[in-house]
Amino acid sequence: MDYIIAHYQEIALKGKNRHIFVNRLLENIRYATEGLGIKHVIDKGGRIIIDLSSNVKENLLKERVSKVIGVANFSFGYKTSNNIDILKEAVLQYIKDRSFKSFRISTKRGYKEHPLTSMDIDRIVGAHIKGATGARVDLTHPELNVYIEILPREAFIYTERFPGQGGLPVGVSGKVLCLISGGIDSPVAAYRIMKRGCSVIFVHFHSYPYLSKTSQEKAGDIVEILNQYQQLSRLYHIPFGEIQNEIVLNTPSKYRVVLYRRMMIRIAEAIAKKEGAAALITGDSLGQVSSQTLENITTIENAASLPVLRPLIGMDKGEIIEQARNIGTYEISIIPDQDCCQLFIPKNPAVRTTVSEIERVEKTLDIPRLIRMGVEHGKMLTSPHEQSC
Ligand code: ATP
Ligand code: MG
């Protein structure tokens, strides 16, 4: 095949800012497909045309383009003339070696000044194919669907559409920082906010050497997978065990969960500010565990000055798991590990805290020092986009 024809949906609605969205999508596609035999990636008449060289690595390319957020669907196809006589013959040549008993032609015009309507083209090309092959036209369940896209100086033809991720291109909505555990939820939260156009930096808290290194390894592997959906990921590993130790020594046990979370939020915010990230992202889903009651969410959020966004707040566990499977993080998330939040956790954590109650408890802690401890001992890793083939 000579070209990929890719479509976007939501960007088409962006009015005056449309070019910003489209340019970002073009750039993200160029980056994701680097080294795979691409000549040009351009926007033409509301679709993206990717010009392929002859030694293109089709499978790898398909895999990469399917992960670029903002692409709604895409196809491998050919270019021909938009002159109807040349076009109908080109379509016939394109499909003549396939065996099919029924077909349909689906024409779309990205160039409305073309002398023929989409339906005219469907009919003329359809009659030509029917005459030459004997196959019948079936508009509802055709064995072969031939798509034609009409542009000002050319037409593109293809027969198969692959689904993309949809959403807005990563980067158009700015930068956020996601608190990522090794669990199922936070990777899905990160993915969903990427789909709203955010580039995501990650922070993971671990209790090594109190607990094993597994959660760090899992977080690293998860970020590696999520990195396929954006250009470059940064992951901060923050040692949290000493901080937890101070909390345990100085506060009543029932508040530990909420106090851990408030410290995580504060340290995450310090990193977010350093990185120029405009919001914090968590994988909270309302009512799932004791830290996710409305009351505790309010108390935890109070420790932040940046907005805390929770893309999964209204999702069921089943829905989250299904999405985790689709994006490819589920298998890693279910590997048993020891999350730092499990360290020194009481049997009955407080499920309904208030801000004033927690602020009183926190008076026994040197919060600025604990924040510094986390930030200064943090380790930053980058996950460059995998370029090898
Ligand atoms: P997850 O599946 O993401 O671990 P969860 O259902 O286990 O979520 P919690 O453990 O209460 O819920 O965590 C709620 C959110 O707090 C997580 O989604 C994540 O954003 C953040 N979080 C929890 N543990 C960590 C950690 N060790 N490092 C970074 N963020 C964390
Ligand atoms: Mg968890």
Structural account:
- By secondary structure, the protein is an alpha/beta fold.
- It has 2 domains: 3-163, VC0802-like, CATH 3.30.2130; 175-381, Rossmann fold (3-Layer(aba) Sandwich).
- It is built from 13 helices and 15 strands.
- Strands 1, 2, 3, 4, 5, 6, 7, 8 and 9 form a 9-stranded mixed β-sheet that branches.
- Strand 5 (102-109), helix 4 and strand 6 (136-137) form a beta-alpha-beta unit.
- Helix 7 (241-250) crosses helix 8.
- The protein is elongated and about 85 Å long.
- 41% of the residues are buried.
- The model is unreliable at 385-389 (pLDDT under 50).
- The site of magnesium ion has 3 residues, from loops.
Domain module tally: 2
Write down the CATH class of the largest domain. Alpha Beta
Helix content: 25-40%
- Quickly give the structural class: alpha/beta
The total strand number stands at: 15
| Gyration radius over CA | 26 Å
The number of helical elements comes to 13
Tell me, rounded to a whole number, the average pLDDT. Answer: 94
CATH architecture of the largest domain: 3-Layer(aba) Sandwich
Sequence stretches where pLDDT stays below 50 over 5 or more residues: 385-389
Assign the CATH superfamily of the largest domain: HUPs
Outline the biggest β-sheet. 9 strands, mixed
Shape: elongated
Give the CATH topology of the largest domain. Rossmann fold
Approximately how much beta-strand content do the residues carry? 15-25%
Q: What is the element string, with H for helices and E for strands?
A: EHEEHEHEHEEEEEHEHEHHEHEHHHHE
Hetero groups in this structure are: adenosine-5'-triphosphate, magnesium ion
Distance between the termini: 19 Å
